[in-house]
Prior knowledge:
Elements: E1 3-5, H1 15-24, E2 28-30, H2 35-47, H3 49-54, E3 56-59, E4 65-71, H4 78-84, H5 86-95, E5 101-111, E6 116-128, E7 132-146
Parallel strand pairs: 1-2
Antiparallel strand pairs: 3-4, 4-5, 5-6, 6-7
Amino acid sequence: MKSFEYTGSRFSVTPEIKAAFDDFGFVILKNLFKRNEVKKLIDFFENSQEIQSHAYGRDDGEGRKTRVALWNYPGDDIGSAVSRSKRVVYTLRDLLGGHELYHYHTKLMMKDAKVRSIFEFSIYCRCQNHFRLAEDMFGTRITVTGT
């Protein structure tokens, strides 16, 4: 599977990217967010009292925890801005043939590993007939790792 680079503010889904999506059902798009944006995002996820108070988790059996936080409605915070980002929404919309999308929910998974790992999944539904949801659902996965 070939991966693609997000370059500049005028990124668009090319025929090559669309063909890869149609063939495999997913694409890997690197550098969707800039380093300074990722740093702010990590800081928010690790230090937000709202995220921490709504996160629940389990011990992985090796002394580390895996935690998750869920929300249905994007707020005005930096974490919710990811799921509303034009980079995410317009790319997904273009991959799906221009259909209007509805944010269904976001799941933030936080893994206390030897190297920090944060995964954010946003799930979208294709809209149909004045927000009556179509049967198909689509997800994005944004992975942030580092020390």
